[in-house]
Every structure is written in C-alpha cells, then in structure tokens.
Description:
Elements: H1 5-8, E1 33-35, E2 39-45, E3 48-53, H2 54-59, H3 72-87, E4 97-100, E5 107-110, H4 117-123, H5 125-128, H6 146-165, E6 178-180, E7 188-190, E8 198-200, E9 206-208, H7 217-222, H8 236-252, H9 264-272, H10 285-293, H11 299-312, E10 317-318, E11 322-323
Antiparallel strand pairs: 1-2, 2-3, 3-5, 4-5, 6-7, 8-9, 10-11
Amino acid sequence: MARTAQAIADPPDPPPAEPRPQPVGEGPGEWFYADLGPIYVSNFDADSIIMCPHDYSYARDDSLDAQWRTGYDTRLCWKTCLIYKQISTAHRRLVPFIRPDAWTGFPILARSSGPPLKQFLAEHKSELYPQALVQSAACRVVDRCRPLVYQWALHALSALAFMHSHDVVCGDFSEDLCLLSALPSLSLSVVGFPFAGYRRLDHGGRYYEAEFYGGDAFSETGLGPKQGRCRPFPTRQFDLYQWACMVFRLMTSYFPGDRMGLNETEIGSLVSQKAWPVLEPEFMGDIIRKSWNGDYNSAEEIKRALISLVEEQGWSVNDGDDLQGFDATGLFQGSSEVLGFR
C-alpha cells in the first residue's frame, strides 16, 4: 500500500515552551486503555482520553525533534483531528472530539462512561455465551443478551451512516474502535478516524484512501484480490462487510470461518466462492449474509432491514437505533462498580 504520509495530515503547531504539567496517562481519573493496532487510546484526565501512536508511549518526549513525530502512525492521529474538524458536526454514535493536545497534536476525545467494547466482551464472556458451547461452532449469544447485540449493531450502523454521509470511509472497522456507555444502556459509540479515507477540502477536495491493517483471512479476502503486491483500499461497501464480520463475532463469540476445521487458505476460498458461514435469522444471519454479498447499498438500508427484524422479535425502535425500554442492568452480575463503570 502506498502511503502518502505527508499528505494525509499536516504536523501541528510547535509545542509550548513550558513542559507538560503531567505525563500522558498519569492524569486524574480511572485507568482507561484501548489498543487500536498501530495506535492506542489512554486516559488523559477525569473526563477525556487521548489517541497516541505506540512510539510515543515508549519515550513520552514532547520536544519538537522527538522521533515519533516522523512516524506514519503519528499521522493517523493527526488525521483524526483533521477529519473531526472538517466534519465539525457531532453525532451521538461517534466519540466526541474535544481538541488537539497542545504538545503533540494528538486528538483528545470525550471519555466514555463505560469500557471499550473489546474489554467488556472479554470480562463478560461467561455471561454472554453458554459455557457448554463456548468452544463450539454452535455457540450463540444467550437469548437474554441478544437484544443488546441488536442495539450495538444498530448503533454501529448509525455511526457508519454518518461517516459515509460526510464522504468518509471508516477503513479498518471492528470492535476495537467501539466504546460503551455505562449501565443501564451500554450504548455504543465509535472512535473516529485513524484508518479513515476522506476528501481533504483544504487540498482541493483530493481523496486520501482508507487503510486496512489486516488480520483474519475472512476479512483479508473480503477486501478483494491484490493488485500486484498491493491490497485494494477499503470502501464504503467494505465498511459494511466489516460491520457484518463484527456482528457475526458478537452473535457467536468467534470469527467467521473459524471452528469449521479450515486453514486460512480454505477460509479465504469460502469468501471467494461466497460460501458464507450459516447463522440463524434471529441471530441476523440473513442480514449478515446479504452484507457480505454486497446486496445492500448503504448502512441506512441495512438499518431498515435490522429494524424490521428487531420489530419481528417484539421490540420497538426509538430515535433510529435504540430499543425502546431496553435496560441491560439485569443482564450481568454485580453492581456497576464491579462491572468497571464510573
């Protein structure tokens, strides 16, 4: 993949002459951490978090000639600020942007009242999935938690629809980018925009491609065949494909293609042949399959299909993506403090 590091975002203004009052990650407030691959999100203060490249965490050097300033992953953080500013409109399913950090230019975002989704799934796997089936291909989220997954799926679609309406492709979309609010809602919001493709208005509307860092064979093959040595760039349709992969994992606890006795090449062949893993309709199997097929033209179209399914299951949807009357408090053992919420 050709990387136009200089173009995707510009360096910020020089840092202030005075030193930072306290190192990043050591401010007030509970510990918060989410690994996004080449970058991470950590606590900044009691009300905010900050996105940083891993290179910064090794030295925490704020000087103008710090080595991390020349790294490509640093540009992902600076790009995030640029896209937030360019969109300039808040959305409740997008983690709010506060400002760039004065010393680094890294984005400071509003702190969610709950944990990262990936952390929550790891901590509550025994309550989300039947333990007798947790290593089996037959594993499905327990019935009492299925409405929660419906709601997460709707929230993620709302975020993607908002991005796409602003000509932004999310890129490497997964549960890694998702944060939760506290009980009782456990609402989902998406961290923008480190891997995004976007049209840079101050560069005459030039489009800079989204990025995909790879991982499982199902997603790698879904991106499309390589062109020489290069992978294709992610598109809006690939965002919807990756959304479906995430929802499959939420519904089953495992990656699509796993637990079928197949190696990576054989999993890739499943995708090439559109021999999709089967999931029951109430677990969104039909919607997931159509998303993988590319049968939907937009996130909004998938939302309409999902709302119809949710209503068939006896729920009503408020404000476009909330299940009316849904309360997650009784789904998980322990108090909100035990669950790790503020």
